[in-house]
Amino acid sequence: xxxxxxxxxxxxxxxxxxxxxxxxxxxxxxxxxxxxxxxxxxxxxxxxxxxxxxxxxxxxxxxxxxxxxxxxxxxxxxxxxxxxxxxxxxxxxxxxxxxxxxxxxxxxxxxxxxxxxxxxxxxxxxxxxxxxxxxxxxxxxxxxxxxxxxxxxxxxxxxxxxxxxxxxxxxxxxxxxxxxxxxxxxxxxxxxxxxxxxxxxxxxxxxxxxxxxxxxxxxxxxxxxxxxxxxxxxxxxxxxxxxxxxxxxxxx
Length: 252
Known about the structure:
alpha/beta; Rossmann fold; seven-stranded parallel beta sheet; 8 helices
């Protein structure tokens, strides 16, 4: 026990000696999680479609390895995990994006894609990764809270959002002792949001600052902090973790 005013013992990095794979890790939430995992002592492997952006991200965080491929290519995804040296501890999947459109304007193929994309991607990653993951590691998938509200113009997004929590819970039972969890953000001030909103981004930021209980917008660093906590806490599996600053309880 240290005396009052004495030195505080240094905290050990919580992911020391572990390997974290970021599927879609070259920007936004994936890149911030790579950065956070590195500060906690982990080795990180990041993937994405753009080789140039991957190289830049790897330099920023000191990634051990990168791989450029389309995550929708099942053979490429399987080959990526087969070629990784050693065991993997944690996998975060941030690839993919929301699709919003009025229901009657959505063609059947877009409806099928919107309903199934995240479930199919999560399942494909699980099949490819589970044999390489250590017991107690976690597969982290991304959902959202915005789609829980039924609203005109959201299209089939609400149904797609509702499918993720039970899918994650069922998958957690199937691939145990590897853990599976779902992070459900609201609006995140990320490059993806900038791409989706375009010149409406600043107005959306201002609206959320005024209406959210926390008085600010959620950033990729906020989500990264939650992701690393879920990796570290081995009691967590099959659950959904909201991170939206209270957005779902407001009119924002």
